[in-house]
Amino acid sequence: MYTALRLQRKLKQELRQGTVEVVVVDPDPYMTYQPFLPEAAAGSISPRHVVVPLRRVLPQCRVLIGEVTAIDHDERRATVTTLAAEKEGDGAIEVAYDELVLAPGSVSRALPVPGLADVGTGFKTVEEAIGLRNHVLGQLDIASSTRDPALRDAALTFVFVGGGYAGVEALAELEDMARYAVRYYHNIQPEDMKWILVEATNRILPEVGPEMGGYAVRELRARNIDVRMETRLTSCEKHVAHLSDGSRFPTRTLVWTAGVKPHPVLAATKLPLNAHGRLICTPALQVDGVEHAWAAGDAAAVPDLTAEPPAKPGEPPVLCAPNAQHAVRQSKVLAENIAAAVRGGPVVDYAHKYVGSVASLGLHKGVAHIYGRKLKGYPAWFMHRAYHLSRVPTFNRKARVLAEWTLAGLFKREIVSLGSLENPRAEFELAAGTGRHNEAS
Fold this sequence. Notes:
- By secondary structure, this protein is α/β, with parallel strands linked by helices.
- Helices cover 34% and strands 21% of the residues.
- The chain has 14 helices and 23 strands.
- The strands form eight sheets. A five-stranded parallel β-sheet has the order 9-16-10-11-12. Strands 1-4-5-6 form a four-stranded mixed β-sheet.
- Helix 1 packs parallel to helix 11, helix 7 packs antiparallel against helix 8 and helix 7 runs parallel beside helix 9.
- The longest helix has 20 residues.
- The N and C termini lie far apart (53 Å).
């Protein structure tokens, strides 16, 4: 989306004359600003303000809602499955192109843990974030109304696997929300809830450094959150989480954020991939050895020109980390290079020195490591919000998010669970199938 947004500006004349067409193919009609998902889950931001509608921000582009299933770069054709093709039964359609930009991002990396596919949930989409919020509040309702102590204990136990940004921020924001919500339940106390973070390595939030990562652990444990490092989830069958340290926790909530992997569409392109499944790219963001093919973001293995060169000859170069900081900046260089290719100009290399990281640990709490400076508590939380507000695309979204933050500071949190939104026809189906709400009643 960022690349197409910039191409609209760079190729304004060509687009107006009709000599150039920019086609954006995506399964969803919006782009999700993922750093705001934890706050959306906590209710600090409305779900519709976490996403950016593609058709509104890309009026000069052709937006095609569908999923790319194969790419024949020799013939310059992409096979796309659209909703209309599925409904009509006509199969996929083919889209011809001259220049190819691959930026599908990444997907959750699920390990073969028994029971994970049945009871686990991810945290990469706005649907997952809002579904998790509704689920957590629903578990409080279950715990408040049941007389079964085993069911109550399972409902109040929340297990998060993965100590990176997604896992830590999601757990911290949701625990903050749940702690606030239980004040309205007459028979649930904050100490009745069990929040467990499982991390396979010996530290969490490695991007903010060991010192700030250690502070984050202490901060979470001070809130009675059970942080278990060098521990793995071995099984979660029958809603019981078994850990490698021998612990077992009956739970109705298991959130999996233990890593990501490149999008599967890359394997269907026949383009050069590295050992981790990412496209091998040059510093100019071109797919190495392939003309008219470009990539950026999580899908691209781009050499980091600002990193120290390899210590030994023959070692592979250091690659740019697959994160939003690089992806957003790469998109600008990528658009400039594509515009140069269209107009016959020179391309430039991408180079950006990593400036640091920020992470939220709930309302008014956070950690940050920026330009060598370490922040924690309220200053880090404020820096987290300021940074992401500056990066979310379009003035419209910035204003709406800022307005919601302002209102949230003036009024109480919303603690309503709208779980029925995930199955809106359930009530009607029940009425139609059982005669409930019939005219005679």
